[in-house]
Design a protein that fits this description.
The protein is α+β, with helices and mostly antiparallel strands. It has 2 domains: 91 residues, Orthogonal Bundle (DNA polymerase, domain 1), CATH 1.10.150.20; 128 residues, Cytidine Deaminase, domain 2, CATH 3.40.140. Helices cover 42% and strands 15% of the residues. Helix 2 packs across helix 3.
């Protein structure tokens, strides 16, 4: 594909250069990130094609889709050529991707270790700019019965209530739970509050004759497991 594009309308390009025609001919998976983004934008500006604008948006986020996925509508509008409609469309496209990757209807999978939990929750947690606390409720056979966000906080702390975690476990009649939260900074080292919270969760589970199996801290593309590290009380 030609790497040099004029700023003219998409209609004036050769067919092999048009994102829509390329999507039809090669399939969406055969397109570059910039071409996919151009389809979401639908149009460019008087000075830029949709593809040029898509490339500018990616460049503003250091070429990283994960950085772009964390951008909100307001910050996207700060890019020249991106109005409310385009910003909302881009943000909505990433949100749909996150929701499809973590659709609760794909639950009932078996959790054999921490990596299974990471794969389940990473699409929800990795792109956030604030902390969220999630609980994954498991059957006696370690099948995922349900998972949900049970607390959220600001940029540096998560509001997590042990009672909320176990009220749901009792309602679902699930004997065990794995909890996880994200660190937007990307640093995976647990804080003292993370350790104290894990202690309270384990103690609360024992009182109710339940089991807290693990606590994960999730970053952008990696995680740390309290159970794997031997940190569970």
């Amino acid at each position: 594909m030609n790497e040099v594009f004029s700023n003219s309308s998409i209609r004036t390009w050769s067919e092999e250069e048009r994102p829509r025609e390329r999507a039809l001919a090669n399939g969406i998976r055969g397109m570059t990130a910039a071409e996919c983004l151009a389809l979401v934008l639908r149009s460019g500006t008087r000075a830029q094609s949709a593809l040029d604008l898509a490339r500018c948006i990616l460049a503003e986020h250091e070429g990283s889709l994960s950085r772009l996925a964390r951008a909100d509508v307001l910050s996207l509008q700060g890019i020249s050529g991106v109005g409310l409609a385009k910003a909302a469309a881009v943000a909505a496209a990433f949100e749909l991707g996150r929701r499809s990757a973590s659709d609760p209807r794909v639950a009932d999978q078996v959790v054999r270790g921490s990596h299974d939990v990471f794969q389940l929750l990473q699409p929800r947690l990795s792109a956030l700019d604030h902390e969220q606390f999630w609980a994954v409720y498991l059957s006696r056979a370690n099948k995922v019965v349900h998972y949900e966000c049970v607390g959220q906080g600001g940029w540096t702390a998560t509001a997590a209530d042990v009672r909320v975690v176990y009220q749901r476990a009792l309602a679902l009649r699930t004997p065990s739970v794995v909890v996880a939260h994200n660190h937007p900074s990307g640093r995976l080292e647990p804080s003292e509050e993370d350790r104290r919270l894990t202690q309270r969760l384990v103690e609360g589970a024992r009182l109710l004759e339940l089991t807290c199996l693990d606590h994960l801290i999730i970053g952008e593309n990696q995680y740390v497991s309290f159970a794997d590290r031997g940190w569970m009380p």
